[in-house]
Amino acid sequence: MAGESSVKINYLGALTAGLWRENPTFRLLIGMCPPLAVTTAVKPALTMGLSVIFVLVCSNLAISLMRNLLKPHLRIIMFCLSIATFVTICDLYLRAFAPVMSEILGAYVPLIIVNCIIIFRAEACASKNDVWFSILDGIGSGTGFTIALCIMAGIREILASGTFAGIAVMPRGFVPWAAMQMPVGAFVTLGLLLGLASLLTAKKAN
Amino acid sequence: MDRVYILIMGFLSVVIVNNFVFTKFLGTCPYLGVSGRLDTAFGMGMAVTFVTAMSGIMTWLIDFYVLVPLGLEITRYICYIVVIAGAVQLVEMYVKKFFPVLNKSFGIFLPLISTNCVILGLCLFINIWGTNNLLEVAVLSTGTGFGFAVAICIMAAIRENLIMVDVPESFKGAPVTLITAGLLTMAFMGFTGMIR
Amino acid sequence: MFSKLKYFIAESWLLLVSSFLFGLLIAVADAAWSAKIAQNKAEKLSGLMTSLVSDANSFEIAIKEANLPGNGGQTVKTDIYKALDKQGNCAGFAFIAAGTGFADKIELVIAVDARCEKLFGFNVLSSNETPGFGDKMKNAIFSNQFKGAPTGKLELIKIGDAGKIDNEIVAISGATVTSTAVINIFNKSIKSVKEQLQQKGLITGNGG
Q: Average pLDDT, stretch A146-154?
């Protein structure tokens, strides 16, 4: 067992790892569907990000609580079960209190179940660590994911419709790029951002 | 004749026009991860086609004959994911027992299929489209898996040639693959509106 | 036999217990929010209907679960609503009509006047079109052509005067397939709705 001080550092590390060093989208390249699919505007992207944080924290909590009881061959199905439960709750909440967003996101809310980030954090972190560590890890990874979503959505919304979260930001006479709203815009934006991310990492390493 | 026409058009629609990878961004993870070599991509595509067809039909049956009559639509997502995980496990066991050679070439990809968004996405979209006919469900699910296979094979073929191209250092790997995928979606956009 | 059962329970008790707990969690969430969800749906529908029928003050169900012709000879059940103005007179009728295509679905709210002779227009309730193309149906030039058009058979034309209100609807450029789908939904549903309303004697006067 490590000393108390190093444990504390670990907790902080769990919170910040997801922001950049282990950012799910830019560094680990997992859970790539939502960054492409729901980033035509900032508001749905933010909703999606918050939903993922909620599901991630709850499922990490649940799995961390039962980590000592898990049978290896029933592990994956337990993960799926707990994730699906919290996604269902999240979906119900959105439908009740944010019906517009729920409609825009549509099938992508239930698709959080198969978002690789959540099952990856469950497998890599929550099934091995204690409850507080898992919760912090969930918050960190989820926030990193949300930030990535918002960067993507910000770029695409500004270029596609000249607005940011519904507020006009571009000067008058700006011609919207319809292509940014279409699938091609999603793929190319994410490709360029990933290239930029690896360029920054390479610079840092030098 | 009318029925056959609907089935054929539905199949073409999910393979080409409404390809899940290009229009709904589903299955992007394996699309980037496994598309390095054509033969593994093909194997993955075929495995996904099989699982998609199976779980599409099974979830529809469960939905139509159990969940809706009993008013249990709220547990839909849980049922879907359990069915999919079960189907993948079944395929894994079957392949291990009867095709050990194939099992070796699939390796780790088989268990990973259960977190492939294409499959759950298809089950959800079949529900959203309101398809109410077993034959149509079967055709649409097979078509969706097939569409994924087509997309991943095209990508793998491009990436095999991409190795020989001089790409900027920081854009090697995933970034240039994504940009290529973007150009591919543009090509596939040409089919939009051909069929509904 | 008994040892097998014991083995089964030993292996899966966690799965069973947690399934029960998770089921309980979902049930609680559903019980707390299902009323709100239903209310949201009703509010959205009545909002869409009110924007179509300008005189409407309130809505009541005229025919519950009427059968409308759906895709491939099947029938779809939908409620037909009667719009009432401030004096309580019938101001028109509205209903939801869906068109399922090949791996696609559009749901429209359609409104007609009290005599079922003229269209009030349509609103899109839900559509899962490709991003970037989806909003074309909501294009005002297209949807305004339906406002005041006769309830007879509608026809789609490629070139024409979109400002003229008649049974010829000019297609959205670049989205002919979508336009066709919308027209098909109208042609399939309106006739059946009119017949059913006449059968029940809900249409005032001898409107056709």
A: 92
CA B25 to centroid of chain Cα atoms: 11
On the question of pLDDT at A1 being above 50, the answer is no
CB contact under 8 A, B132 and C74: yes
* pLDDT band of A51, cuts 50, 70, 90: very high
Determine the number of helices (DSSP H) and then strands (DSSP E) in chain C: 3, 7
Total number of domains constituting chain C: 1
Rounded Cα distance, C58 and C43, in Å: 12
The pLDDT of residue A193: 92
The answer to whether residue C169 is domain-embedded is yes
Give the range of the structural domain holding residue C190, as residue numbers without chain letter.
Answer: 52-199
**Of the candidates B3, B192, B196, which has its C-beta nearest C181's C-beta?**
B196
Report pTM.
0.86
pLDDT digits (tens, 9 = 90+) for C147-202: 777 777 777 777 777 777 777 778 777 677 777 778 888 888 887 888 787 777 77
Chain C residues within 8 A of A95 when measuring between CB atoms: 33, 37, 40
Query: pLDDT category, B96, cuts 50, 70, 90?
Result: confident
Candidates A122, A25, B140, A97; CA nearest to C105 is B140
| Contact check, Cβ <8 Å, C131/A88 | no
Q: How many domains does chain B have?
A: 1
Q: Which residues, numbered 159 to 198 in chain C, qualify as contacts with chain A under a Cβ-Cβ cut-off of 8 Å?
A: none
Residue C60: count of CB within 10 angstroms of its CB: 9
Q: Do B81 and A113 touch (CB under 8 A)?
A: yes
Below-50 pLDDT ranges, chain C: 131-132, 206-208
- C40, C41, C130: best to mutate for the A interface, most A CBs within 10 A: C40
Answer yes or no: is B2 within a domain: no
Question: Residue B61 is part of which domain span?
Answer: 26-189
Which chain A residues contact residue B189 at CB under 8 A?
A: 182-184
Amino acid at C188: K
Q: How many CA atoms lie within 13 A of C200 on its CB side?
A: 14
**Cβ <8 Å between A92 and C132:** no
Please report the pLDDT score of residue A7 as a whole number: 52
Q: Does C205 touch chain B (CB under 8 A)?
A: no
